[in-house]
Design goal:
Number of helices: 18
Shape: rod-shaped
Order of helices and strands: HHHEEHEEEHEEHEEEHHHHHHHHHHHH
Largest sheet: 5 strands, antiparallel
Strand content: 5-15%
Structural class: alpha+beta
CATH class of one domain: Mainly Alpha
Helix content: 55-70%
CATH superfamily of one domain: Hypothetical protein af1432
Length: 578
């Protein structure tokens, strides 16, 4: 998912998507538009073709049945003209009719009301089929004697490969009275063969009766089946008119829609149904759709490949610019973007390198200016500290030593660079308030009176007031004001306690006391380093912050702090540290 999300957010995705859209979409749209048009056109042509086929076949079936029916009427007219003919003459007439019809009649019989007469039976009519036809022939004989015509279809004859039609016609005398009856069995095998021959290209042709029973068809195994559930047959049996449409055939095993057309057979209650599955009818359309999909897919792949190549040509230089700009943002101003080629991106990379060079030069000058300003600032601070020391010659170098000790403690506390710099400045200026103290008090060689000591204790507040107008030094003021606060809250000027004392003030306070105890003053001699460390360790948690004393001891142990006047040795006299 992360790779997909990154891909979607990249320029490659946009370029590839645009190329796919401008290639695949038009090809697919044109292909499917043509397929839809061709499908509509093929539907029209298919309906027309099936309609013509149904009408032509219905006409052929009608002509075949009507022609054989006309032959039968010819027999009745001939027998009427030669009334009282012998059985031999009747047999000759029947035989000639059977021969002239290409043996379409499987059975012909002429009989009077008593059943006497002649008959001709084709060898193709099996005994089983003849037995099955007995009842139908009897009905046809009786109907003819009643001076009416009989017409019936039989699709269930055993041992017979096709359906048959049974006719019954009256035979009249010259005076119009009925002398006998003519019965005939017409073989529909020629129709069956014609329907099979017309079924090409997946086409199905069916001749059905008024009840929806198949009489003959292009499928030899369909004879006798009921297709009355077919929508087209159902509508035709209700209203026997020509119909053509696309519908869903419930008897279609693949359940594909079919295109069908039905036409009535003249002078019979039959119908001809011609069907073709849309899977066959619209095969060219499906082929076009498949080709459209293949062409669209190939176009999409080509578009993707071209898109990736174009995107790579664009994104690789851009990614290089991104990498270089990130390094520059992280401070590596010496890095440059590779410039290859002469296109717009190469021109952009060249301009970017020029800009990076200008920025590098500008930053170098700014850093140099900052260093100069810092050096000037520090020189100014040192000058001010020297002025303080000049006012109190007995503590000369005190500010620098306190600054050095404070920096060593800060490093052992792992403070940041900015915090170390602030501590350095605050330590140098921690006694700036002594500028506001009278020289008589500062330079007094002996101990201070209570009143003088009260005045002397005002120097942290005076120093904070001196530095307050300088906004740049606002962060060091707590180190100046509160470096005489004690961990137990008994310090001055604010009586702060514990963690309420700013860390810079805690560090400077410890460094200030350490320097006071390890240097010679008018009122005391420098104490030994071991004594000072032991004394300050004992005051950890009361006068000094424990963490600060721990860092001080570690700095001394590492030789980061070396007092100028103290030596390792015996104890020094106890002196009050103020």
């Amino acid at each position: 998912m992360a790779v997909l999300k990154r891909f979607k957010s990249s320029l490659t995705f946009s370029i590839a998507a645009v190329l796919v859209l401008v290639t695949v979409v038009p090809v697919a749209f044109v292909g499917y538009s043509l397929a839809a048009y061709n499908k509509e056109h093929l539907t029209t042509l298919e309906k027309q073709s099936l309609t013509r086929e149904a009408v032509n076949l219905a006409s052929e079936v009608s002509m075949y049945v009507a022609g054989q029916h006309t032959r039968l009427h010819g027999i009745t007219r001939a027998l009427k003209a030669v009334a009282g003919t012998t059985t031999k003459i009747q047999s000759e007439i029947l035989y000639e009719t059977a021969e002239d019809s290409n043996r379409a009649f499987l059975y012909l019989q002429v009989a009077d009301s008593s059943g006497d007469g002649a008959f001709v039976r084709d060898p193709g009519l099996s005994d089983a089929a003849a037995t099955s036809l007995a009842t139908t022939l009897a009905d046809a004989f009786r109907t003819g004697l009643e001076n009416e015509e009989f017409f019936s279809i039989r699709v269930d004859l055993p041992e017979n490969g096709s359906s048959v039609t049974v006719f019954g016609l009256p035979i009249e005398n010259r005076d119009g009275s009925v002398e006998g009856s003519l019965t005939a069995v017409l073989d529909l095998a020629p129709i069956q063969e014609r329907l099979q021959a017309s079924a090409t290209g997946g086409q199905i042709v069916t001749l059905f009766s008024e009840s929806g029973q198949i009489i003959a068809g292009s499928r030899t195994d369909s004879r006798g089946k009921d297709i009355s559930a077919s929508p087209l047959v159902k509508d035709f049996t209700k209203t026997p008119v020509r119909l053509t449409r696309i519908y869903q055939d419930p008897q279609n095993p693949k359940n594909h829609p079919v295109v069908g057309s039905v036409a009535g057979v003249a002078d019979t209650p039959w119908g001809i149904l011609v069907e073709r599955s849309t899977a066959d009818s619209f095969a060219p359309v499906r082929g076009m759709q498949v080709r459209t999909i293949i062409v669209s897919g190939l176009a999409g792949l080509i578009a993707l490949a071209v898109g990736f190549l174009l995107a790579r040509r664009l994104t690789v230089p851009i990614l290089e610019l991104d990498r270089v700009s990130s390094e520059i943002a992280q401070g590596n101003l010496a890095v440059r973007a590779p410039v290859t080629g002469s296109d717009e991106i190469a021109h952009l990379a060249g301009n970017f390198n020029n800009m990076a060079g200008s920025i590098e030069n500008l930053v170098r000058r700014l850093r140099q200016a900052i260093r100069q300003n810092q050096e000037l600032f520090l020189e100014t601070i040192r000058t001010l500290a020297a002025a303080i020391d000049a006012k109190d010659p007995y503590t000369r170098g005190h500010s620098d030593r306190v600054s050095s000790y404070s920096l060593a403690i800060a490093r052992h506390l792992d403070l940041s660079q900015d915090e170390v710099f602030q501590i350095r400045i605050a330590a140098i200026l921690h006694d700036v308030g002594k500028l506001g103290i009278r020289d008589g008090i500062l330079n007094k060689p002996g101990g201070l009176t209570e009143e003088e000591f009260t005045v002397m204790r005002q120097h942290p507040e005076i120093g904070a007031q001196i530095m307050a107008p300088i906004r740049m030094l606002k962060d060091i003021i707590p180190g100046i004001r509160n470096h005489h606060e004690t961990w137990d809250g008994k310090g001055y000027p604010d009586g702060l306690k514990g963690e309420d004392i700013p860390l810079v003030a805690r560090i400077i306070g410890a460094a200030d006391t350490f320097d006071a105890m390890t240097t010679t003053r008018p009122y005391q001699k420098a104490m030994s380093l071991d004594f000072v460390l032991g004394k300050m360790h004992n005051m950890s948690g009361t006068r000094f912050a424990p963490k600060v004393i721990t860092a001080l001891l570690a700095a001394v142990e590492a030789d980061d702090i070396t007092p100028p006047d103290s030596k390792h040795g015996g104890p020094a006299p106890t002196v009050e540290v103020s």
